[in-house]
Sequence to fold (421 residues):
Amino acid sequence: MAAIQAIRGMNDVLPDQAAYWQRVESVLVELFGLYGYREVRFPVLEKTELFARSIGADTDIVAKEMYTFIDRNGDSLTLRPEGTASCARLGLQHGLFHNQQQRLWYLGPMFRHERPQRGRYRQFHQAGAEAFGWDGPDIDAELIALTARIWRSLGITAASLQVNSLGDAAARRAYRERLLAYLSPLRGELDADSQRRLDTNPLRILDSKHPATQAVLVDAPLLRDHLDQDSVRHFEGLCGYLDEAGIPYEINPRLVRGLDYYSRSVFEWVSGELGSQGTVCAGGRYDTLVEQLGGRHPVPAVGFALGLERLVELLTLGDNENPSGVDVYVVVLDEAARLAATQSAEQLRDRGLRVQQHCGGGGAKSQLKRADRSGAQVAVVLGEEEISAGRATVKPLRRDAPQFSVGQEKLAAALAKFFES
Ligand code: HAM
Fold:
């Protein structure tokens, strides 16, 4: 019988990798808290209508990529392809937007039936932050500053910021007509995907990477020249805050997003080290989404989501040390030493040291080999000789330092000193 494999585009995280994930997640939790964002958790499954109404029926996500099925009650359900729609639904449903402003964050798996490739998966993970109830550009800048701090904390330098403004709905409608008037006579020169988008979502043609389409776009009208005055002021405000905060950015007039709910500011952080799927973080304003989902009053909102697989890849590409492994490996040379070894290991753990105790048999050589592979800094060796003398042998594994012997009652203190030096 053939062994069962995971579903294409859905990844397992193996122990060596998990340590990077934990590091990313703990930095995110800490930094979201540092900016006053509070966690929310929402279901992986939602009614299909939630995504159709928010992301937009003509977007690639809704038209082609959703995991949708009819459940046993006959309801159409969808595995969430992103978190913003659910976050807005959650806030509305629980009255969180009623005379209140909210800074929220979430983290978890999302699902899109895309063509898998490096950095693009069918199950992937996003961490997102969403701010509801503020309409000024200061909160947009705050979210961008938060992302900049995330890169700094993780030691990631290879991400650059692109920003743009999409204007309000009326400005986009007017621009859409201008763009259609320009592109329609040139339809034959566009790539097949862009030809299809001409009929569904023409603004998305702007971020086509296809050389022929890019050539056609050189003389296309720019959205920037058709923005409403409020959006222009808002965007200038955002750029001013970024300048003040010393966060470098590039204005990319072709930056449009793949989801329909955006208005005004949009932004992306892109890394050149990830191949074609280089966007590690993306977001923007969605001032009309809450009303679209049934809210009685408009709730201005802005947020971002970062792709954890891409972030983890950036970390593993850098010369960041793998944070996995233990501090101490306890080598147990014979059965007589096992009880003392277990007690020593527990005492070291009481002191906060990460300890792996050898289980099963094996000679000194093979146990020391395992100690080395565990990533431990030192091996603590306990055998008959040590037990009868009430001592332990400490063997440094990564430093060029001599092994030494220490009384068992002083082992924890001696190791603490060793790790400090
Ligand atoms: P998005 O651009 O669709 O936006 O996704 C955000 C990020 O999720 C991407 O920049 C990328 O890092 C990651 N991502 C998306 N699709 C995949 C995939 N198939 N495989 C791996 N990573 C992926 C949103 O989802 C919006 N909800 C962002 C937002 C929040 N806007 C406002 N608030």
Q: What stands out?
A: The chain has 15 helices and 16 strands.
